[in-house]
Specification:
With about 100 residues, this protein is mainly β. It contains no helices and nine strands. Helices cover about 0% and strands about 70% of the residues. The chain is globular, with a radius of gyration of 13 Å.
Length: about 100
Amino acid sequence: MIEVLWVSQAVPDAGLETRPVMTHGYERKTFWIKSDVAGTLYIRAFNEQSRSHENFDSITVSANTLTPYMTTHGARTMTLFFDPTANATVSAWVVLEGVK
């Protein structure tokens, strides 16, 4: 299953978080992002105890490069937070595979 998170989304230099994606029940989650500006992508997973999405990993995203991030994290929902070095235009999606 493919879920589109952003299509040419204006992301301010202060960063922006995607909507939550229901990831429970899928073995592999591959997030894809492409930005016209470099930045840091934070992968957030829902924490049942705190009842909020918390960073569990981050990667560097280069400008104008399609960047994947694959995880098998078992969180119920996940989000992305992209923190660009300047205002950016960003597209992102997730591929959910391997129904448990």
